[in-house]
User: Fold this.
Amino acid sequence: MSLDTLKKQIKEKKLSNIYLFTGAEEYLIKYYTNAIRKLIVDQTNEEFNLITIEGKTDTEAIISNCETLPMFSDKKLVIAKNTGLFKSKKGEGTDTGTSKKSGKDRLTEYLESIPDYTCLIFIESEVDKRVKLVNTIKKHGLVVEMDYQKPADLVKWVIKVFKSYNKIVDQMTASYIVENSEYSMTELLNEIEKLVNYAEGRSEISIRDVEKVCNKTIKSRIFDLTDAISEGNNSKALSLLNDMAALREPMQKVLFMIVRQIRLIYRIKLLKNQGVREETAAKELGLTPYVASKIMNASRNLDVNVLEKAMYYSLELDESIKTGKISDRIAIELLIASIGSR
Assistant:
């Protein structure tokens, strides 16, 4: 909801005086910081009215920069990045210790009456919501958590970005790009730019283009591995596992993703057995078109009982890993063998 509030403020040009941006999605943080900058700072006087502070900073330095009057403008923008003021760890700008406490308290009091001519944006990679400063910003400004977006939203965004380059992609191709990349919008943008350059002179981007140009991530390899498992092709599955091991993919992550796929296939299978249409089932589980097609295909080859046994067995394997009886790699091989022997 806070992100929706921010979008509304920018659209209506009615900004708060204080913001705290945090979260894993760096692209969105940069995008909205830049959107605020464009509303406040004119390029002709940017050197006077845009101040960026990076790293651990004395609170008085932040206050003094906020107090300075803007020049040739009604407002100024102060951006403070990774100050450490929002951590609760001892020795990292927390409320422990007399001098640090008085400094943070001084800043907290100041933010309650920050000048109208100043817009202050804190950008922090680590935020403890219990820190007093967070509550103060919530009360007098806006705290926005910008985490990785949902795959379905990313598919829409990918289509929109391609459109800005005068390129066309259908939903299946867009979801293929999303599901074969990391969910980071910055990473996705890199893949989009590669495809745009590759398809110069053509208006449409196809899945074949993606296969030729884009990097193959662990997610895409997991789809291949799951396909092989569902087909009962254990030798191919083990070969793909060897490839991932050679690429030093974390085996714990590989196992987690295989189990996640098995659970999705199981849930789809149950819904289909209840008479739910495939499209409705995919929508209910929040699957993008590409993932839905993969899960549906796999579900046709696997029985509900096999999937249930695989899920229970994965729990046993997890316990064996945690107690040191087997390694993650051995656990994956055992799980593949158990499904393949159906």
